[in-house]
Amino acid sequence: MAKGYVLLISLFLLLVGCTTSEPSADSKVKTIEPAVSPVAQNTAPENLGTDKILEFAHAGKDYCDKEADSMMKYLCISLYASNKKDEGICYDKITKADFPSNYDSVLSSCIESVAIGKRDVSLCGKVTYNSEHCYSNLAYLKENIAYCQGDNCKASLAFQKSDESICSGISTDYVHDDCITAVAFKKKSPALCSGISDGLRKKICEFAAKGDVSVCRSEQNKLYKDYCFAATVKSVKNPALCGEISSGSQKETSCIKYLAGSLKDYGICESAQDANYREWCIQYAASSSGDTAKCKELSNPTRLTGCRLETWGRKIGGRSTGFSFLDEGEGVGKQS
Prior knowledge:
The chain is mainly α and about 325 residues long. It has a domain of about 160 residues. The protein contains 16 helices and no strands. The radius of gyration is 20 Å and the shape is globular.
């Protein structure tokens, strides 16, 4: 199988199943996350490895009918339809009898997988459930902002292309500011942060772009100091910096979780005081390293499912196409 198609399959797995639900929200700084497939919320197949993915992709027309598990049957149909670049398979094989409670969303995800396989944006018009996600994937893959139907898509492309001018077309204030921050961080350009009007988010942007620990230690405002360390650790990647953050939520989300995933070190998660944050940290680190076995330690069913699907996707080279700067391992100062 061609390398490009393996990447396509991994993108599809992430597209239909990613979930990285985080604890409490911060009203000032938010994270944008990809949608979760309703199929993926209650099932987590144990045996979906690379061999099984290839088996499904090259299955015969009726091969998927033998799968008793709804998740496995759904993935089999979608992977086969994507490989054949034929959305007709989705209509033929996905039935209301098999998916009585989520037929529309399952069918839509299958059609979207074919749209990605064919790089055909017109198929997104046939997606009835979360069509914006389909258009965003095509915009990302084809690097064409004209396909974007939402601000998150534009922000993702801005970061991908290192082009802050795209951020000016974003109307949602926190998405606009997050977009500027992402590009400023990537280009190491604090000057770009002047385009942010919100005081706290502007400071976070500047901290991220500078990546200078001495700036954090000289900061007198306690809130700013915490955000500074959380932002700077993205560049410095030193676990010791987490100990200099006084806010529990900032320490455990923006610092501990990020470093555990970035450095692929589960031991860092043990420093999280809250059990909920600790599980979230393990999920993120496992998905970043492709460690399916580690997912089994998670007690939360939703996190367990998300962890398995994310690790399988990353094992074969994929990444989420949703814009989540922090969760892609390069983000700064955001919580959801």
